Amino acid sequence: MIRAFYIGRFQPYHFGHHTVITRIAEEVDELVIGVGSAQKSHEATDPFTAGERVLMLYNALEHLPIRHYVLPIEDVRYNSIWVHHVASRTPRFDVVYSNNPLVIQLFREAGFCVKESPLYIRDRYSGTEIRRRMIAGEKWEHLVPKPIVETIKDIDGITRLRNVSASDNNFSL
Amino acid sequence: MIRAFYIGRFQPYHFGHHTVITRIAEEVDELVIGVGSAQKSHEATDPFTAGERVLMLYNALEHLPIRHYVLPIEDVRYNSIWVHHVASRTPRFDVVYSNNPLVIQLFREAGFCVKESPLYIRDRYSGTEIRRRMIAGEKWEHLVPKPIVETIKDIDGITRLRNVSASDNNFSL
Amino acid sequence: MIRAFYIGRFQPYHFGHHTVITRIAEEVDELVIGVGSAQKSHEATDPFTAGERVLMLYNALEHLPIRHYVLPIEDVRYNSIWVHHVASRTPRFDVVYSNNPLVIQLFREAGFCVKESPLYIRDRYSGTEIRRRMIAGEKWEHLVPKPIVETIKDIDGITRLRNVSASDNNFSL
Amino acid sequence: MIRAFYIGRFQPYHFGHHTVITRIAEEVDELVIGVGSAQKSHEATDPFTAGERVLMLYNALEHLPIRHYVLPIEDVRYNSIWVHHVASRTPRFDVVYSNNPLVIQLFREAGFCVKESPLYIRDRYSGTEIRRRMIAGEKWEHLVPKPIVETIKDIDGITRLRNVSASDNNFSL
Amino acid sequence: MIRAFYIGRFQPYHFGHHTVITRIAEEVDELVIGVGSAQKSHEATDPFTAGERVLMLYNALEHLPIRHYVLPIEDVRYNSIWVHHVASRTPRFDVVYSNNPLVIQLFREAGFCVKESPLYIRDRYSGTEIRRRMIAGEKWEHLVPKPIVETIKDIDGITRLRNVSASDNNFSL
Amino acid sequence: MIRAFYIGRFQPYHFGHHTVITRIAEEVDELVIGVGSAQKSHEATDPFTAGERVLMLYNALEHLPIRHYVLPIEDVRYNSIWVHHVASRTPRFDVVYSNNPLVIQLFREAGFCVKESPLYIRDRYSGTEIRRRMIAGEKWEHLVPKPIVETIKDIDGITRLRNVSASDNNFSL
Predict the structure, then answer these.
(1) Measured between CA atoms, how close is D35 to chain F, in angstroms?
(2) Position with higher pLDDT, F125 vs D54
(3) Whole-angstrom Cα distance, residue B139 to residue B116?
(4) Which residues of chain D neighbour B83 with C-beta distances below 8 Å?
């Protein structure tokens, strides 16, 4: 039995994530998916709450054929303990999939087995680009799985993103 | 569609929790299960990590007939924001099931609908009693669903519980 | 111009506090009143929020003849910096009034001038006794200034206190 | 009885704030004024402590004809609970005045009534511009109410602002 | 080259600690000494600051024949990451000396080599007993190395301990 | 007896620091060296852990002729209490050496005696420049004392620095 770990911020969940997760699911028995920066929301780069992102993943991964855990992971104040923070919040896993050099470095220093994630076309599917389109009023719906569109509409996510982006994120005059 | 919320510490998950969750599942469409005090582990009253407890719930609830979310919830420093902390970490829910007077008071003040949990025989199924039996070397396995026994053995949980209970929990002479 | 500092938890504000503050007001030009443990509420020993306690003090001290500042002060994680934490949250003051040995020690070590508070009959006017009476359904209204009774009724404070006291303060089964 | 809420950082308090607060005071019965980012001081954009800013507001608003509360509000780590954090630190209020899109969004999502603040000429009265003038040695005193000038001189605020701005805010070589 | 780790709270440093450290020094090449609960001071069980305790250890260990590091270690909020927190604050070490079951359990789970500390007569040399004697005005000086007596006198430590113990440690009426 | 205080981040320790510390050591009896931002590591500007930096200083200062304390100092959330945080973590000192305007301002406001550090050629010896060279594969070894080269090689520090710098420091896609 091989259990893998994969982490993203999912702001929002898009076809890039979906491709990677679907591919990993073909190689392992179980997959732990960390919803990173769980404490963040209502920011220009992090508009959605952890709960909203969890819902996106449940909706998009309903038919993933292997058991998967969707678990919010809060940031910690310093990198040296981040891996152990993750480990204490998740079922024990055997391999980490990531393309992020920092994530790879931290897990390797801690003695974990790390593999490169299957690639996707990053230019096309990127949270940054999708949020830019949402604010600009351009088409973004084709870049995310269908249930994500619903979830974002239900919470009036575009209005929220525009407002939090219009602000300097500072509660003050 | 009715989505409910239920929270426990699950140190460990036992037949008391299992009965309640099974009953709630008959009344609602989806259930969000909060794994409370997620940051705690290796303490006499909280021996298991959030990740280990998540695994217990996934194993025990594999056949629960409704969609359920198992989400670690960390404690926060003050009660006045606890409900909103929970809300930001979970998909939106319509009703809270609880028998804890503080939980009920906090959710009611915040305008949530709260229902009493279905009851179980607390004297028999209690985390405190189960941990006492584990330390004393008495029989405890019949008080928890079978997969929980496996999970605890896999991590050598009895030894851990005994050691963390033998200590005054203070890293010092 | 002499500005003094006085701190209490005010759970709730009662005639003991009122007597002390009225007396200090006769000796100084301005008074900074710290509302301690500001982050706490909905606990058996700390049922009221900082905002509710601020309101109690504004209502009770409406006619205090000197300028007074009512400022919530959160607890800090360690005693060695508590005095400086207080100092950064308050207008500069010249003298501290307290009968609490720890408060006196901390301010003296930091070089502040400290005076004993004018005394009041502690057995009669004590937050602990008032909260006990509230829970037991005994008479408590004569122990607090009249506006405090209103404030507590407005927020249904007795019900809240009973519920948070009935719980073991632990969000879990 | 209508109680309103208004928040600013007041680094320093200036005629822009003063105009807005004076206008709001004509529309409501009581006003809660939050002193935002209360934990900050000795930074290029936040030179003054919460206590110093509280003093500025008390001095400038001595003759405001309605009851007003001046209450420091610390930042919290994440936006989703900020409104509830504010609510627990303040007497209950009926309406929020703000022009900040993020503040408006957060209070609206939490079900509060929000009104646009009365406007002032932002180009002229801005904390950023005033701090720039203080550092450059240009005239700034005409942009703030007279008592603010005194308060800042008493604490040698210009020297402090220059020193904290000269640094990269990093305690190190 | 073998580098060992040993941790204590040292409230205050006494002959029990001294015996253990001297013995460990005979078995290893370098010793890292953690000053635990570094953030605490001015409490009945933790009267001395980290800085004062560091000074005690430097004075008492001036002639220890091996290189030793005296490093304050703050508590962390949860046990599962404590070992990794320690590891990030200290030079890499090969072996841990401890008699505390929790410390042993945590380091063993993290894969460290742990040895039992050399024993000392705990009834005689205990921080609890020494602090009790200090408060009661009984003889305590013979239980600690001579430089410790000086250090405590220099900071008027007995007065501090008595005052912080007389208080219920709660900044309030 | 004069005890001085000096603080740096030491990312890594270089000849600039070494010159300053050696000079200060000629003027005072004891020197407390704070290792600033102790909680940081594995970041592009802060690659090394506190423990690794402590080891660098012990190795480089083995022959410093005066007693010196090497003590990690974590950042605190706000500047107003930073000085007191430092003071609680260190043996009492009489004078602070610094060229950082913020550090000077904070210690002066708190009543400490502050002296300008002896100067060194900053263009040549700068952590920023050394880290840039490490990443670029240029020569950096001549800019640090010899034992520092060993320490960094032992932990494969160059690889780590490159990886953490290649990332946007954000655990996510």
Answers:
(1) 16
(2) D54
(3) 31
(4) 84
Token pair for D113: 């009534």
pLDDT number for residue A167:
73
Whether E168 shows a pLDDT value over 90: the answer reads no
Q: Letter for the amino acid at C107?
A: F
Using a CB–CB cutoff of 8 Å, tell me whether C69 touches chain D: yes
Evaluate whether D83 touches D68 at the Cβ level (below 8 Å). no
> What percent helix, strand, coil does chain D show, rounded to 5?
45, 15, 45
Where exactly are the structural domains of chain C? 3-166
- pLDDT tens track for F66-78: 999 999 999 998 9
Q: Residue A101, Cα to own-chain centre: how many angstroms?
A: 16
Closest-CA distance, F62 to chain E, in angstroms, reads: 10
Of all residues in chain B, the percent with pLDDT exceeding 90 is 88
pTM score: 0.94
pLDDT confidence tier of residue C121, bands split at 50, 70 and 90: low
Separation between Cα atoms, residue B41 and residue B50, nearest integer Å: 8
Mutate which: B48, B164, B167, B172, vs E, most E CBs within 10 A: B172
Q: Which residues contact F4 (CB under 8 A, 6 or more apart)?
A: F24, F27, F28, F30, F31, F32, F93, F94, F95, F96, F97
Q: What's the rounded Cα separation, in Å, for the pair C72 and D39?
A: 13
pLDDT tens figures, E93-150: 999 999 999 999 999 999 999 999 877 666 678 999 999 999 999 999 999 999 999 9
Q: Which amino acid is at F125?
A: Y
In this prediction the ipTM stands at 0.94
Chain E residues with CB under 8 Å of F54 CB are: 69, 71, 90-91
Q: Give the bridge partners for F95, in sequence order.
A: F4
Closest by alpha carbon to C28, among C72, C60, C65, C70?
C65
Q: Please list, in sequence order, all residues whose beta carbon lies within 8 angstroms of the beta carbon of residue E111, skipping any fewer than 6 positions away.
A: none
Listed as ranges, residues in chain A with pLDDT below 50 are 169-173
Give the CATH superfamily of B3-166: HUPs (3.40.50.620)
Within chain B, residue ranges assigned H as helices are 15-27, 50-60, 82-89, 101-109, 127-136, 146-154, 157-166
Confidence of residue E172 (pLDDT cuts 50, 70, 90): very low
Residues B38, B76 contacting (CB under 8 angstroms): no
Sequence-separated (6 or more) residues with CB below 8 Å from residue B92: A51, B3
pLDDT tier at F124, thresholds 50, 70, 90 = confident
Region of C72 on the Ramachandran plot (φ > 0 left; ψ -120 to 50 alpha; else beta): beta
What is E93-130 written as a DSSP string?
Answer: -SEEE---HHHHHHHHHTT--EEPPPP--TTTS-HHHH
pLDDT of residue E167: 73
What does residue B129 show for φ and ψ, rounded to 5 degrees?
-65, -40
Residues forming a β-bridge with C84: none
How crowded is residue E139: how many other Cβ atoms within 10 Å of its Cβ? 9
